[in-house]
Amino acid sequence: MAPIEPGDEYRIQITEFGAEGDGIGYIDGFVIVVPEAGIGQWVTITIDAVYENFALASVTETDLFLGQPPEA
């Protein structure tokens, strides 16, 4: 069972590219596919659809830095 649901919002780091060039990040080890996101970016996302092995998300905000996020 997926640890997320459609409509949930998260802040994740994109750590790799998928086979079709989409950004890939993880939430509790669960694969999140984020179109138009680049490796190293921290993005705020909204989960659009959840499938058995992955979820699709859209970017709602992109941070302007790479690597570790600044202290909150």
What's the end-to-end separation, in Å? 31 Å
Instruction: Write down the Rg.
Output: 11 Å
Poorly predicted runs of 5 or more residues: none
- What's the order of the H and E elements? EEEEEE
Enumerate the strands of the largest sheet in spatial order, edge to edge or round the barrel: 1-5-6-4-3-2
Strand content: over 45%
The number of helical segments is 0
Largest sheet: 6 strands, mixed
Care to describe what's here?
The chain has strands at 9-13, 16-17, 23-27, 30-34, 41-50, 54-66. The termini are far apart. Strand 2 and strand 3 form a beta hairpin. The protein has 72 residues and is mainly beta. The model has no long low-confidence stretch (mean pLDDT 89). It is 0% helix and 56% strand. Strands 1-5-6-4-3-2 form a six-stranded mixed sheet, with no helix packed on it.
How do the strands and helices of this protein lay out in sequence?
Layout: E1 9-13, E2 16-17, E3 23-27, E4 30-34, E5 41-50, E6 54-66
Parallel strand pairs: 4-6
Antiparallel strand pairs: 1-5, 2-3, 3-4, 5-6
